[in-house]
């Protein structure tokens, strides 16, 4: 009984201090969790990143980049050999929430494009992915090239792949030509160019 009472007391104590009526405290803690999430993401520790971003959102649901990080973390847990459509759907929702809260977040637009490209349920996924990439190019460029994509060449390669799957070979070739001008050694563009021959 003594252990049960101690456990209940610890639980109550933890609950009192985990809930705050101070919105500034919650916002600061949320931002710290967001920073921790990106640090974990950049280390390749996607499970920790996922938890940090979820904690950030629980404290301040308006942090668009925490929703964005949640989407990228979910996408990064996917195995290339087995695409999990449920994980992709959750990542897509996170990116859409990030965009809803901050349409200027170029990284979230790229995340959405990736989720749609991987989902590939219908042609509209590729068309929407192409629009998302275009939106990324016109959005706040401070959010571009923070992690998975290193240059505009990578984004144009994704566009080329979307056009390829849509059967738009001329547009795919044009996007590949753009990639090659920026990065002549881009592996994705070179592979797609071989497919188009």
Description of the structure:
The protein is mainly α. It has a single domain, classed as Tetratricopeptide repeat domain (Serine Threonine Protein Phosphatase 5, Tetratricopeptide repeat). Helix content is 77%, strand content 0%. It is built from ten helices and no strands. The protein has helices spanning 2-18, 23-43, 46-59, 64-76, 85-101, 106-119, 123-138, 152-166, 169-182, 187-196. Helix 3 (46-59) packs antiparallel against helix 4 (64-76). The longest helix has 21 residues, at 23-43. It is elongated and about 55 Å long.
Q: Nutshell version of this structure?
A:
The chain has 197 residues and is mainly alpha-helical. It contains ten helices and no strands.
The largest sheet is: none
Strand content: under 5%
Shape: elongated
Helix content: over 70%
User: Tell me, what is the CATH class?
Assistant: Mainly Alpha
Unreliable stretches covering 5 or more consecutive residues: 1-20
CATH homologous superfamily heading: Tetratricopeptide repeat domain
CATH architecture: Alpha Horseshoe
Over the alpha carbons, how many angstroms does the gyration radius reach?
Answer: 20 Å
- The arrangement of helices and strands along the chain is HHHHHHHHHH
| CATH fold annotation | Serine Threonine Protein Phosphatase 5, Tetratricopeptide repeat
Question: What attributes characterize this protein structure?
Answer:
197 residues, disordered N terminus, mainly alpha, single chain, Serine Threonine Protein Phosphatase 5, Tetratricopeptide repeat
């Amino acid at each position: 009984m003594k252990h049960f009472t101690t456990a209940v007391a610890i639980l109550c104590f933890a609950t009192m201090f985990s809930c705050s009526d101070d919105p500034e405290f919650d916002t600061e803690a949320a931002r710290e969790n967001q920073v921790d999430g990106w640090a974990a993401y950049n280390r390749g520790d996607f499970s920790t990143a996922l938890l940090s971003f979820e904690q950030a959102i629980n404290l301040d649901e308006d942090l668009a980049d925490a929703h964005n990080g949640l989407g990228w973390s979910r996408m990064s847990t996917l195995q290339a050999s087995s695409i999990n459509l449920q994980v992709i759907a959750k990542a897509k929702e996170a990116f859409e929430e990030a965009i809803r809260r901050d349409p200027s977040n170029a990284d979230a637009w790229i995340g959405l494009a990736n989720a749609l490209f991987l989902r590939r349920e219908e042609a509209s996924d590729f068309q929407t992915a192409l629009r998302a990439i275009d939106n990324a190019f016109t959005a706040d460029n401070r959010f571009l090239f923070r992690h998975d994509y290193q240059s505009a060449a990578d984004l144009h390669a994704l566009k080329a792949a979307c056009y390829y799957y849509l059967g738009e070979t001329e547009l795919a070739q044009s996007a590949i030509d753009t990639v090659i001008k920026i990065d002549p050694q881009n592996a994705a563009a070179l592979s797609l160019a071989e497919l188009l021959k």
